[in-house]
Design brief:
Blueprint (H helix, E strand, L loop, with lengths): L8 E6 L6 H15 L2 E6 L1 H9 L3 H7 L8 E3 H4 L14 E9 L1 H8 L6 H11 L4 E5 L6 E5 L10 E5 L3 H12 L3 E2 L5 H13 L1
Parallel strand pairs: 1-2, 1-4, 2-3, 4-5, 5-8
Antiparallel strand pairs: 6-7
């Protein structure tokens, strides 16, 4: 979008979760290709590691190619202050989507701790009443998840059942009381972005 006044800006924050990472990437790729908003990507230090291990860093650069409001901001280059998250106070982001969101990051957000680029973004977005959506890696129900073969020294991927801890569920409930919206599936990302964009047309 060339007209800055008409541009729709969406913030995507990535934490250090491998689960739902490639699916979230695919969802945002579809958002970029079909809806064409400007997407700023914020990556925690753990996310920098995980995206490198999964080999998807270059793909993220296609979603956020580097123009104004289409940058990729890394924890390693932003430092402790994560000053670029101050953009949320301008009111120019339609929403912040944290996908995937680790239980560690969600616990910090739930308890008001803002010590990473992602938790800073969430803190400022919530203070400015910018809609915040999270895709938790720990869901209320026991579920089956896939562990890539290269992470467990196997020839094939393995499937394991994961049950969230009581504290994880309590944090999700607390986040809901703060107005944070929960996503259940990476496929929800496209629908949320489409609705946000339609509302601003």
């Amino acid at each position: 979008m060339d007209d800055d006044a008409e541009a729709i800006n969406i913030a995507w924050a990535i934490t250090g979760a491998g689960e739902c990472l490639t699916e979230s990437l695919q969802a945002f790729r579809k958002v970029k290709e079909e809806l064409d908003p400007r997407i700023t990507t914020f990556m925690s230090a753990s996310a920098e590691e995980v995206t490198r291990v999964y080999g998807i860093r270059e793909m993220i650069s296609h979603i956020s190619p580097g123009e104004y409001y289409e940058e990729v901001f890394l924890q390693s280059s932003q430092g402790a202050s994560s000053f670029k998250t101050g953009r949320f106070y301008t009111g120019r982001y339609a929403a912040l989507l944290i996908a995937p969101a680790t239980s560690n990051s969600l616990a910090k957000i739930a308890h008001g701790i803002a010590d990473t680029i992602v938790t800073n973004a969430a803190s400022l977005a919530l203070k400015y009443k910018t809609p915040v959506y999270v895709l938790p890696t720990d869901h209320p129900k026991t579920k089956e998840t896939t562990i890539p073969a290269f992470l467990c020294d196997r020839e094939e991927d393995i499937k394991v059942k994961v049950t969230p801890r009581k504290v994880d569920l309590e944090n999700l409930k607390k986040l809901g009381s703060e107005g944070v919206n929960m996503l259940e599936d990476p496929n929800d990302i496209f629908g949320i972005c489409k609705r946000l964009i339609d509302e601003r047309k």
